[in-house]
């Protein structure tokens, strides 16, 4: 997969050299390119913003600068992703869908955001899709953190990036539609707290049942909205009893 990120702060994306995403890049599983939007400016001051039409506080990013940048970076079949607090919430389903694509381009806004004509213009370009996404109901200073979130959520789903693909199966927000059960490691007693006995039993069926029950309980307590969205047909008899 190829991912291009365009930002006025390319250094903000440096953490994408670390950990699993960094390894994926080194292994050639992810071709990640970070660009400085100011490379597409034409004036001496490398200006990317201007005052908003209609008045009001703050500055707006200019469509002509973004237009030149995206003309160069977007190719046929690319998906242009615009982080914005007014976008569709980024979910695990979105990440799964994006992980099947060939080329993502993330355009990081700053100030009051990017002139709205940029999304409108590129949505009419044949072969290019445009999506506006939000990483939560709060406002950040720029799209770079949202780009980091998106790239990490998508890259870890690419084949070969996570060492043991089994660890992607039972995760929170996975196919079961539940939060993950609590996890424990050694030592078996710590700070007067014991690991649940069943996990030390070696009894695989009991462990699987306990984990499923814990996932259901945790989801019911913390995210009743997720539990309510489950298809009752997918619950088994034991689930109904708990
Ligand atoms: N004036 C905009 C509004 O109220 O919707 C907020 C602009 S924000 C200060 C600057 C940039 O940060 C946005 O263009 C976007 O790229 C990014 N951003 C801020 N919050 C975000 C969020 N929750 N999700 C995704 N991107 C966000």
Task: Summarize the structure in words.
This protein has 242 residues and is an alpha/beta fold. The protein folds into two domains: 2-155, Alpha/beta knot (3-Layer(aba) Sandwich), CATH 3.40.1280; 170-241, Trp Operon Repressor, Chain A. It is built from eight helices and nine strands. The protein has a five-stranded parallel β-sheet with strand order 2-1-6-5-7, with helices on both faces. A two-stranded antiparallel sheet has the order 3-4. A two-stranded antiparallel sheet has the order 8-9. Helix 1 (19-26) links the parallel strand 1 and strand 2. The longest helix has 19 residues, at 204-222. S-adenosylmethionine binds at residues 83-86, 108-110, 112-113, 134-136, 138-143, 146.
CATH architecture of the largest domain: 3-Layer(aba) Sandwich
Total strands: 9
Q: Compute the number of structural domains.
A: 2
Tally of separate helices:
8
The top-level CATH class of the largest domain is: Alpha Beta
Q: So what's the overall shape? A: elongated
Percent helix range: 25-40%
State the end-to-end distance: 43 Å
Reported for the largest beta sheet, the result is: 5 strands, parallel
CATH topology description of the largest domain: Alpha/beta knot
Which hetero compounds are present in the coordinates?
A: S-adenosylmethionine
The CATH superfamily title of the largest domain? SPOUT methyltransferase, trefoil knot domain
Mean pLDDT: 96
